[in-house]
Amino acid sequence: MASLAVAEDAKPWSYEGAEGPDKWADLDAANQACGHGLEQSPIDLNNYYIASLEPLVMNWQAQPFPMVNNGRSVYATVAKGSTTKLGDDEYQLKQIIFHLPSEHAVAGKKQAMEIQFVHTLGTKKLLIMSVLVQAGERNEVFSLMMARAPGKLGTQPLPLPADALALLPKSRNIFRYRGSLTMPPCTENVDWIVFGEPIEASQSDIDVFKLIFTNNSRPLQPINRRFLLKGVF
Questions:
Q1: 94-152, pLDDT tens digit by residue?
Q2: 199-221 burial by CB neighbour count: b if 16+ within 10 A, else e?
């Protein structure tokens, strides 16, 4: 599906150099939002409004996720059947994408990594739930996924089923805003939910990813006239 956050692209792009983020809009006419959009992601999660947010219910199935290296990131492909209900809408969880360092910041502070849970509803609606990762105690599921992260282009399944819910923090404080994909074509059709508290993962597991990608994170974008909401679910 072309709308997924790690969809393959006809034109080359990168996270640095001549094909880096400040050049994305020039690489392909389809990428105009990357340079001229007004609802781009990621952002600094600051200057928010406290709000009553819609209920959020995750019904995710444990599975031996295939871990994929597509040359720009490592992500897990999610089999059909894992859903997230936001209000009255039920989204399908499709991919779990890893970024280093974190793409979003909280009050100006970025974390070591970010995990993005990409959901779809139909062909045009996207929901991305995001969790920041800081160095600390070992997270068993994160460790298992990093152990099978391919060091080059390719796919490796996990040796046993993993529960992606273990990658979420216990705190139910979240930020919510309207934004975009954080990679070309930077389409502005994403409802973002970012957890306010990071999870911990061992530095050694973070270093595994760093050996594969030293940077696959888009710089912060201006919030412009959008409203950033914070609440609990």
A1: 999 999 999 999 999 999 999 999 999 988 899 999 999 999 999 999 999 999 999 99
A2: bebbeebbebbeebbeebbbebb
Number of alpha carbons in the 13 Å side-chain half-sphere of residue 114: 27
Query: Do 51 and 57 contact (CB within 8 A), yes or no?
Result: no
Cα–Cα dist 161/63, whole Å: 4
pLDDT number for residue 1 = 38
Instruction: Supply 52's token pair.
Output: 């009553």
Nearest to 72 by CA among 130, 1, 9: 9
For 214, the token pair is 């030293």
Give all domains of the chain, ordered by start, each with its CATH number: 29-213 (3.10.200.10)
pLDDT averaged over every residue in the chain: 95
Q: According to the model, what pLDDT value does residue 11 have?
A: 73
